[in-house]
Amino acid sequence: MAEEAQIQTQNESKRIVLFGKYEIGRLLGVGASAKVYHATNVENGKSVAVKVISKKKLINGEFAANIEREISILRRLHHPNIIDLFEVLASKSKIYFIVEFAAAGELFEEVAGKEKLTEDHARRYFRQLISAVKYCHSRGVFHRDLKLDNLLLDENDNLKVTDFGLSAVNNQIRPDGLLHTVCGTPSYVAPEILAKKGYDGAKADVWSCGVVLFALTTGYLPFNDYNITVLYRKIYRGQFRLPKWISCDLKNLLSRLLDTNPKTRITVDEILEDPWFNSGGFKLDRVLVKSELEEENRTGFKPMNAFDLISFSTGLDMSGMFEENDGSGLIERVVSSEVPAKILERVDEMVKGTKVVVKRFENCGGAKLEGQEGNLIAIVLVYRLTDELVVVEMKKRGKGEEYGAQLWKNKLKPLLVELAQKQEVTVSR
Questions:
Q1: Whether 285 is catalytic
Q2: Is the pTM of this model over 0.85?
Q3: Continuous H helices in 185-291
Q4: Domain check: are 148 and 183 in the same one?
Q5: How far apart are CA 171 and CA 140, in angstroms?
Q6: Which of 77, 103, 181, 330 is deepest in the core (most CB within 10 A)?
């Protein structure tokens, strides 16, 4: 493997190859927080997109939390109309998202080029959007920034939802059952978000879907004004005009989507029953996906979080931004191709004849090592990295206890060294 954590430049051809694997191509777009490039996987010739984020931006704690959340969300979402995250890489100064490449670009460009789409064409995109949104909501994810710019098209004219940087998950919902963070793009934001009294993430996404559908079928946004105060007043009051040329069924659906009252606004399940939505026949595809929980329950070993991989990369340890450090000990990690169950069996063998008790974690690949008085000495965790590799993490605890220190020195550390030698790749630490 090429040396990690740097972009390699091959002078003879002036190519930029990221981590010896992705040849960087043209710039696709520039956002407030990242640049996106087209790239080619030099191993198989397939196109990917590379989202590049500067490490300097992580000084902002809120932005850093958004990055962590986006990675966590993307790794649990696998749907034909949601952009795929392949892997996350890191250098001393940047984070790289390697994602699915949508060859046809933004849906915004499609609309801008044709002024407006036929209802049949718009319906096809809208069905794919609702399929993706329903899937996200079923997994407790609320996008909160659905707009034409965040909807891409692949080479087969299929829609792909992207940019989950502002997304929320269920554990962000407050005791009142609502989300409270004000976010989104002005022309697409739901009125209840502007009210700053809390909102239902699913209902807010439906409103944004309504704005998208309106733009697809008319060629312009329902709410638009150079004066942001005037714009928000129009949104809050629901002031928009439906053009005469659209069908009655579409007018009815748009009115229900852009209902300023979230309690009476149409739901995703009701959209699936709508006459315009189902015109010509439609069947929502069932997407079979292994969720993180299903994978963990099946194997008993926790899949590796992509954000954890970032923290392993040379020169970029961001764990201090996201994890509480209790200062009680040392964390050691190695990559190994040893079978996870055998790793824990070896831990059991290591402590036989000592004063230490091993207690396995239920539904998780790990165990804690306790002394005679129940004091914690160490924690061993095994994360699934790939089908062939695992990451073994040992956290040393129990400061000042002689037998604990000796156990770490004479038993656990040598085991880590042994496991590190049993691997099939070179890992920089």
A1: no
A2: no
A3: 191-194, 201-218, 228-237, 248-257, 268-271
A4: yes
A5: 9
A6: 77
CA distances from 301 to 91, 339, 383 (A): 28, 11, 6
Residues 357 and 412 in one domain: yes
> Which CATH number characterizes residue 34's domain?
3.30.200.20
d(CA 426, CA 429): 10
SS3 content of the chain, % helix, strand, coil (to 5): 35, 20, 45
Do residues 117 and 161 make contact, with C-beta atoms less than 8 angstroms apart? no
Catalytic residue among 145, 163, 259, 308: 145
Tens of pLDDT, residue by residue over 405-425, are 777 778 887 888 888 766 544
Percent of the chain topping pLDDT 70: 76
Q: Are 405 and 329 in contact (CB under 8 A)?
A: no
Q: At what angle do helices 201-218 and 107-114 cross, to 10 degrees?
A: 30
Amino acid at 320: G
φ, ψ dihedrals at 408, nearest 5°: -65, -45
Answer yes or no: is 203 a known binding residue.
no
Q: Are residues 133 and 221 located together in one domain of the fold?
A: yes
Residue 329: is its pLDDT beyond 70? no
Q: How far is CA 83 from the centre of its chain?
A: 10
In this structure, what token pair is assigned to residue 254?
A: 């748009």
